[in-house]
Amino acid sequence: MLPTSLEPTIIQELTKQKSLYDNVVKQFKKAADLMKLDEDIRKILAKTNNEIVVNFPVKMDDGRIEIFTGYRVQHNNALGPYKGGLRYHPLVDIDEIRALAAWMTWKSAIADIPFGGAKGGIQFDPTKYTINELERITRRFTFALGNNIGPEYDIPAPDVNTNSQIMAWMLDTYLSMMPAHERYRCLHVVTGKPIESGGSVGRDKATGQGVVFIIEQWAKDHNFDLGSATYIIQGFGNVGSRVTSLMKRHGSKLIAVEDITGALLNSEGINPDDLIEYVKNHGSIYGYPSAKPIDHNIFLATKADIFIPAAMENQITAETAPMLNLKLVAEAANGPTDPEADIILNRRNIHVIPDILCNSGGVIVSYFEWLQNKRSESWELEEVDSKLHKKIINAYERVRDTAIAYRTDWRTAAYIVALKRLRIVYKERGIFP
Ligand code: GLU
Fold first, then answer.
1. What homologous superfamily does CATH list for 200-433?
2. CATH homologous superfamily of domain 48-194?
3. For a tag on the chain, would you pick the N or C end, based on fewer CB atoms within 10 A?
4. What pTM value is reported for the model?
5. Residue in 83, 107, 119, 205 annotated catalytic
6. What is the Cα–Cα distance from 33 to 230, expressed in whole angstroms?
7. What is the structure's pLDDT at 115?
């Protein structure tokens, strides 16, 4: 059985039909053309710096040996150590991890935190393994990565199907490989740890909290009353479920929800706390009695004000974008909208707040955790939340103002914000030798 409170687990077959890295290349090119980015910097950023693939054996509970394939892609570290999550999912492959690593580079640059971008994962379905097997898989993966990660070099964190328990095992394994007197200097080798093992308060809810801070600001800017707003959400893992309980405080109504087991609708409103409790007891939204089951296309076509994709990539495509019936897409997931869908949504005046801005709360609070570990401090929740609010709203304003200045969509504007920062650093520092 898996540990509880995992990040979202939707597996849509659609996800793997196209190259995710192609999406990054298209998004990047649009922004680079518009801002007239120098050819040399384009060449550097179009490629990943390092790609580590490890095959490693793990002993199963019944004594058999299985071989797993794990990845860590380090896209860029011009702004600081590589940073990004690790996901456990059957569809993980090098193309997906490359795209996710590049998005981390842009995300940290937009948020103005001193990190580069990386991502990793293992290609397997964690729901098919026992907790003891998961522990051994995680430890053996950490061992296989060896010095390719490090507290001042490359810092993993949770992502899809990984959580604070997985980070605690990684930390313990990494520290066990160090000389004894060095160990406590290295607590910040991973973030998203349990509080007792050096984690930060507020990290668990940080991605969801950041999404809601952004939606609040968007609503303020557009004179939009969240108290009478309706929304639909895809993915009810760590991020999706936390977004719903934070949105409840505004009185916004959740009318449809989808996870790997299907979709549910209740136009009178679904009570997030009730659904969270149900999912805790049943493992998914399947069979939840206070809403009626609907199919995927009806879910996507549900009329609402806001759609929050909080699951996997490539969910909004040329095929599904025309079905949406809303004002705003707030991307809590990484890469939920492909470039063809972006064109359709723009044309239809559906505003998209891009992933690299919208879900950056997670890595922002990872940065706070990293800082606390380095300084041997532990901050209060109010401090974490107010610092997160400041950072993410500053990022939001930079993107909004850039979208106005360049008369472009927010995804392209977000890329421009990131690329300008990277351009300055490359200009100042030059290329060795
Ligand atoms: N996995 C999260 C993301 O995609 C968090 C990464 C981190 O904290 O390093 O942004």
1. NAD(P)-binding Rossmann-like Domain (3.40.50.720)
2. Leucine Dehydrogenase, chain A, domain 1 (3.40.50.10860)
3. C
4. 0.95
5. 119
6. 37
7. 98
